[in-house]
Each structure stands twice: as C-alpha cells, then as structure tokens.
Write a structure and sequence with these properties.
The protein has helices at about 5-45, 60-170, 175-180, 210-215, 335-350, 355-360, 480-490; strands at about 230-235, 240, 260-265, 270-275, 275-280, 285, 290, 300, 310-315, 320, 325, 370-375, 375-380, 385, 395, 400-410, 415-420, 420-425, 430, 435-440, 445-450, 455-460, 465, 470-475. By secondary structure, the chain is an alpha+beta fold. It folds into four domains: about 5-40; about 60-150; about 175-325, Beta Complex (Endonuclease - Pi-scei, Chain A, domain 1), CATH 2.170.16.10; about 335-490, Endonuclease - Pi-scei, Chain A, domain 1 (Beta Complex). Strands 3, 9, 12, 15, 16 and 22 form a six-stranded antiparallel β-sheet that branches. A three-stranded antiparallel β-sheet has the order 5-4-8, with no helix packed on it. The N and C termini lie far apart (about 160 Å). About 30% of the residues are buried.
C-alpha cells in the first residue's frame, strides 16, 4: 500500500471514531431523559403487571412492583366490597339512631317518675338513718348507765359474799355441830360417820332428814354421784364457773371437755371433802387410788340437804376441782369396761343371769351417756305430748311417772340412730320383743346424723314412754343396789 492510500484509510478511521464518540454522548442524553419519563409513567401505572418489565428503568425492583400491584388490587377489591355494604350500614345507622332518639324520649318522659321514687327512697333512708342514730344513742346511754351502776352491783355482791361466809363460819362452829347432834328431829341415818361438819353455800334444812327417811321408805333414791350447786370449777380459760351454770363443750383446766350436764332432785345428806360439798357415793382419787367419798378418812358427813344437786360428764371420765380429781357421773370412758357395765345392767333388766346371753344384747361404747333428739315427743300423764327439751323436773309423765332429773348432752360426742320414727343416741336401752337391748343391737335402727343437744330424764319408774308407745330406759337404767355395787367395784379397780 502506498502512503497516500494509508492516509486515506486513517482519515476514514478517525471520522468513524468521532461518529462513535458523538453517538455515545447522544445515547447517554437520550437514556437520561427516557428514565425520567419512565419513572413518571411507572408512578402512574405501577399496578400494571407489564410495568414489572420496566421496573429497572424506573429504579424500582420487581418485588416492590409486585407488592404495589397486590396492594392496589386488594385495596380496590375491598373498596368495591365496602361500597356494596355501605347502604346496609347506613340503614342500620338510621335504625339505631331512631332507637336512640326513642330511648331518649322515653327516658325524659320517665324522669319525673324516677325522681319521685328516688325522693321516696331517700326519705325512707333518712328515716332509717335517724332511727338507727337514735337506737345507737340510746344504747350508748344505757351502757353508760350500766357502767355507773357496776360499782353498786359489785358492792352488793361483796356484801352477799361476806354474809355467806359469815353464815358458813357460824354453821361450821363446833358448838353448832354439837347442837345438831342433839337436835331431836334430826334423824341421823345409821351410816352417818364421823363428827357432824359444817355448812354449805346452799344450806339445807336439817329437818330434811325426815324427808330423806320418808323417801327411802318409799323406794325413792336420790342421785348419789353429784355436787352442791355452788361448786366452782376452773376452766382452761382460768375462769371459774359454778357447776350448775357450766356450758356443754366447756374445756376444763386439765383439758377435759364437758359432754353432758346433770340436774337431780336430792334426797341425800352431803359430805365435805377438802372444802367441796359432794354426795357420799362419788368416787375420788386419794393417795393414787380410787375410793368413795363416804369411805374416805378425809370426808365429813354434814347435815346439808340442798333441793337439787348437779354433776357433769367429760370425755376423760374425770373432773378436776381444786386439784382434787373426781370421777365424772358415768365414771368410765373405756369401751371394754363399758361393755361389761352394759352387760350387768341388761342382766338385771332382763332377769337373765347368763353372761353370754346378755353379751348379745350389750354394745361397746366410749360414753355411757344416752339421750333423745331434742324434739322427741313424750307421753305426759294428761292426754298430751311434750317435747323432751321442754320437760322439767317435777313434771308427771304417763302413768304418774314423776321426773326427778334432767340431763343435757352434746350430740357432737355421740352417735345417733333412728329407731322407727324415734331418734336416739348410742347406748340407749330399748325394749324389743320383750327384751331390753342396746339400741345398736336392734334390727330396725339406722344411723342418723345429729350434732345438736340431746336430752334424757330420770324418772320415778326408771322408764320413759315416747309418743308411739315405745318404751326406753331412763338415764340411770337401773337402781339395783347389787348391780350398782358391782359396777362401783369395777370402777374402783381401774
């Protein structure tokens, strides 16, 4: 190639390069303005799926474009759905709006009536408030009056207490007791022992000796396991209470719980033992051995015969008084000992002296107490019925059967049974087919839940007839001296 030809080709190449540079510049300018136009158009048509193809030109990702499309389409669908429901909602809005207007009209109409009743209620509330304030004021004044009177009552109490102590001191004077010895009408019983002693807080008439002798001749026996009514017993709370006022379920100072309390007509002279007035057959612990009061060297027979005597039963079978330990009324809480006692009693009641036979009628029990449901109807001597809870000492039962004692028992410590229509506690003796049995041994009795107070009686005949003519033994169950002496020997041997 010659030099001239080479220069011509170099000029062509130079022109081509210049065109390429110019084209590149023009291309960049065009692309710049096209991206701006695409971005504006994309903002208007981004819900169009075809815009995903130009997303890169609009500086947006395909994902953003897809999300925008879905969002716009969903928004449009819900807008159309809500536009369909809007007329329905408008109808409901108008209905409830009308209802609200009606309720407002009704409320405004009833407002005078409401205000009237509100005023009446407020008036009565004011009356009640004023009445209550008056009552509280009266109670306050009454309490203040009682407080002011307390000193007067205390003075009266101490005066009576000193008078009692004076009488007691006089009655225990040796000269007085010697006068009692020679009192012409004081029929001292043959078993009276020792020198005549002092008085009691409830002094009896020495002439009661005639009454006692007459009662014995008639076969009437008083309770010989009791205390004078004023005997003080200390509770676990350190409070002292008279035995005649002690409450069921009271806890004594040694932890024993009172499960029964007894009140009896008295036909016996009392004994004085360590300052305590008690009947002669009561059992006391002396020198770590059990003995009867009348056989104790520490006891003194006194000419004291109160109208009534009292005793209690406890869950321990003992009573602690002034650090002296006595047996309670029933004397035993050992179920095996009590089974033997029941067998002996049934032996006497049935005139059957075969121990094996009577064992079939007896029952093991922790407590020898027995009683009736408080509402049990008892046959009275007149053609009437009376609830046992309302029967009092001195009342006359069916067939001229006089009540000489009454017992209250806490039902919490006993089991109860329904004997036909009669509700009785455990250890009750009833006559079935001519045979006396423990209630637990009868066929027809069913267990019954009862935790209230049970009642029992001591009668002249030793029996109690209820409203359906069913016969039960009273609380003492037997007055057979031989049987009772055997029971005493069993207790003393414990």
């Amino acid at each position: 190639m010659d030099k001239k030809t080479a220069k011509r080709y170099a000029a062509y190449l130079e022109i081509l390069i210049l065109f390429c540079i110019a084209g590149y510049i023009v291309q960049n300018i065009i692309i710049k303005y096209l991206k701006r136009d695409y971005a504006e158009e994309f903002g208007k048509n981004k819900d169009n799926p075809l815009s995903m193809l130009t997303a890169s030109s609009a500086e947006s990702s395909s994902t953003e474009v897809f999300n925008g499309i879905v969002s716009n389409k969903t928004k449009g669908a819900f807008t159309e759905y809500l536009s369909f429901l809007k007329p329905i909602f408008d109808i409901f809005q108008k209905m409830f709006g009308s209802l609200g207007v009606g309720l407002d009209i009704l409320r405004n109409t009833l407002m005078p009536i409401r205000n009237y009743f509100a005023s009446i209620a407020m008036m009565y509330y004011q009356y009640i408030e004023n009445f209550t304030i008056g009552i509280l004021y009266s109670m306050h004044k009454f309490r203040a009056t009682m407080y002011r009177s307390l000193s007067g009552f205390n003075l009266l109490y101490h005066t009576l207490e000193h008078s009692k102590n004076t009488i007691q001191s006089i009655s225990t004077h040796r000269g007085v007791t010697m006068a009692y010895k020679i009192w012409p009408n004081a029929e001292v019983t043959a078993d009276a022992k020792g020198e005549l002693g002092g008085g009691s807080t409830s002094l009896g008439d020495p002439m009661n000796a005639n009454k006692i002798a007459a009662a014995r001749r008639k076969g009437q026996h008083g309770c010989d396991i009791c205390f004078d009514s004023d005997t003080l017993i200390r509770l676990k709370s350190e409070k002292y209470v008279k035995i005649c006022n002690i409450e069921l379920d009271s806890i004594l100072e040694d932890g024993s719980v009172v499960i029964a309390r007894h009140k009896f007509i008295n036909n016996e002279y009392l004994y004085k033992y360590d300052g305590i007035y008690v009947t002669g057959s009561h059992i006391v612990k002396e020198n770590n051995k059990w003995t009867t009061i009348k056989n104790s060297s520490k006891s003194t027979r006194v000419f004291i015969c109160p109208e009534f005597v009292y005793c209690i039963s406890t869950n321990t079978g003992t009573i602690l008084i002034n650090n002296v330990l006595f047996k309670d009324y029933n004397e035993s809480v050992n179920k095996y000992t009590n089974f033997t006692i029941n067998s002996l009693i049934l032996m006497d009641l049935n005139n059957e002296y075969d121990t094996k036979i009577n064992n079939n009628y007896a029952y093991e029990t922790n407590y020898l107490d027995s009683g009736f449901h408080r509402d049990t109807l008892i046959e009275m001597n007149s053609p009437t019925l009376k609830s046992i809870k309302n029967i009092n000492i001195g009342d006359i039962l069916f067939n001229n059967n006089e009540v000489t004692g009454k017992i209250e028992i806490s039902g919490k410590h006993l089991s109860f049974y329904k004997d036909s229509s009669i509700i009785v506690s455990s250890n009750m003796k009833t006559k079935t087919d001519g045979i006396w049995k423990n209630i637990e041994k009868t066929i027809n009795c069913k267990e019954y839940i009862y935790n209230g107070i049970a009642y029992n009686l001591i009668t002249k005949s030793g029996e109690i007839m209820v409203f359906n003519k069913r016969l039960y033994k009273d609380y003492t169950e037997t007055n057979n001296k031989y049987i009772n002496d055997q029971i005493t020997d069993i207790i003393l041997a414990q």
